[in-house]
Amino acid sequence: QGLRRIAVKAPAEQAYVAMAFRVPGMERVDALTDGDRDALALMVLSAVLSGYDGARLERALSQGPQRVADSAGSSAMVTGRGPSLFLLSGVPADGKTVQQVEDALRAEVARVAREGVSEAELARVKTQWIASSVYQRDSVHEQAQDLGSNWVQGWPLDAEERLLALLRTVTPEQVQSVAARYFGDDQLTVATLLPQPLDPKAKRAAPATPMRH
């Protein structure tokens, strides 16, 4: 319990911060538990924050004269095996610190918890989600990948269809509720990349010499 921090020093041009919150996972697509419903709402929250060009994190952190980040994003990793996590991440803008980015990321989630989201914003996210899903189905590779993933998880083969139908039912109140309940310090691990000078003398690996037969 309690906030945990990890700092990594490595040659890099820019700093980076990733915040991982432990959240409920999506374990089934029928006979949903409260945890399953919260996982659905967290997926929608992530889409509200960074699911389209000009979404909340981009507007608040990466645009305008007061911007603190070159990039910022979110991801709800709530399906599949392994720990279920909600990720917030960002790259500080020139002259800004990882702490400023971290504070700004959390402020946007807190804003959703405080003010909620509009029906129009939610409708936009859902429409984009459905369009993206339809587009992906044009790819045989994507279809095969989805079927394989569903089989591994023990989900029905039509799980993607069911999941989309469930996502359509998520309400603004549910999104506001999960934003208020799952983003405290007790659920949080923060990883920070502290950039070190790049070695100008470092040589790139030589290309492999083709074998002759």
TrEMBL record:
InterPro entries (UniProt xref): Metalloenz_LuxS/M16, MPP/UQCRC_Complex, Peptidase_M16_C
Domain Peptidase M16 C-terminal, residue spans: 9-128
Molecular function in Gene Ontology: metal ion binding
A Pfam family assignment: Peptidase_M16_C
Protein family membership: Belongs to the peptidase M16 family.
Protein name: Peptidase M16 domain protein
Organism of this sequence: Acidovorax delafieldii 2AN
Lineage per the UniProt record: Bacteria, Pseudomonadati, Pseudomonadota, Betaproteobacteria, Burkholderiales
